[in-house]
Amino acid sequence: MKEKEKAKELFNKYCFAIRTEETDSGYFTNVIYAKDCALIAVDEIIKVSTNSQNSENYWRQVKQEIVNL
Questions:
Q1: Ramachandran angles phi, psi of 20, nearest 5°
Q2: 50-54, Cβ contacts within 8 angstroms, sequence gap of 24 or more
Q3: Which pTM was predicted?
Q4: Other CB atoms within 10 Å distance of the CB of residue 68
Q5: What is the pLDDT along the chain (69 residues), one digit of tens a residue?
Q6: Which backbone phi and psi does 28 adopt, to 5 degrees?
Q7: Residue 58 gets which letter from DSSP?
Q8: If you compute the radius of gyration of the chain from its CA atoms, what whole number of angstroms results?
Q9: Neighbours of 67 (CB within 10 A)
Q10: Which residue from 3, 15, 17 is spatially nearest to 68, judged by alpha carbons?
Q11: Who contacts 34 (Cβ-Cβ below 8 Å, separation ≥6)?
């Protein structure tokens, strides 16, 4: 999966997980919190990444894509 796709996938999962306050149009999600959660998750993956430099570079790029959302 491309870095941008992975970033959107993680972000969307957190948006869904932390949704609050149902309104007529659906649930309200604080996108800032969702973004922060996704960044924390990626930071944790980077910390334990021991496979290779390629893996660490991939996750650093995913992190940058999340920041860009």
A1: -145, 170
A2: none
A3: 0.83
A4: 8
A5: 999 999 999 999 998 888 877 666 666 678 889 999 999 999 999 998 876 788 899 999 999 999 999
A6: -90, 130
A7: H
A8: 13
A9: 12
A10: 3
A11: 11, 14, 15, 17, 18
Whole-angstrom distance, CA of residue 65 vs CA of residue 14 = 15
Residue type at 11? F
Q: Which two tokens stand for residue 16?
A: 């869904």
CA 68/CA 6 separation, integer angstroms: 13
The DSSP 8-state label assigned to residue 24 in this structure reads T
Task: Give the domain ranges of the chain.
Answer: 3-68
Give the Cα-Cα-Cα angle 17, 22, 25 (nearest 5 degrees). Answer: 105
Q: Cβ(26)–Cβ(33) under 8 Å? A: no
Distance CA 41, CA 57 (A): 15
